[in-house]
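thoughts on these tokens:
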Amino acid sequence: MSKRLLALLAVAALPLSAAGGWSDTFLGYRTGSQFREPGIDGTLTKNILQLGHASGWAYGSNFFNVDMLMSDRNDPTADGSTGADEVYVVYRGSLSLGKVTGKDLAFGPVRDVSITGGFDFNSKDNAFASRKRFLVLGPTLHFAVAKGFWDLSLFASHEQNHNGIVGKAVDFKTAAMLSTAWGIPFQMGSVGAEFKGYANYIAAKGKDGFGADTKPETLANLSLLFDLTPLVGGKGKIYAGPGFEYWNNKFGGANNDGPAPATNRRVTAPMVQLQVHF
């Protein structure tokens, strides 16, 4: 599986000089005070810097994102000196089967079908010291929407990680993953806006580093962004607005929503955010 995935990513990452190329690169910032982390009883503030890039070429598309997450002291570093820092990287490359074969694969509300592969990578300097290595591969349905995009993917996913509490590397079982992403622009009177986000459901993936059975995990990140470009001018686009993160059974650990100390509560975190697109 890994050789096929590497081959797919090599194809998906071909230069964008091919006909039909497009790209969108942006810097973002978001913050909120209601984030949660397993092992911590209570909420914490995170400031998140983001670099994102989406692009298309003759036979597919690419998406790359880096989040730099900075927690307050409620989520401390391993030595407890300050709030923990985390880097989280995501890449997805899609190869259009319709464009490769030259056939119209549209059916019902679906305009095309792709094969998508990619990876997640993270590193965090808290006591748990996660080092996530995550691979996905599977089909993607691209829905026909009037503007923007809406995709739905069914992946086989495989995660390797590290549990610094017990000093153990963890190789989870391959698990099914249902993933959707969307970006729908619209007008609110004279103001341009976009509803965008993603949602992932990952089935149970065996036992974690503590030997406990994992649970199905759901993560959703939603944004309503307003185009502020007319107010500030310039060649790029500036968006700002509210966001919301929902995370159930975070990292596959069972929620513990009972009386304190409740160390794995469901995450329901409102955010404010800013994006500058080039």
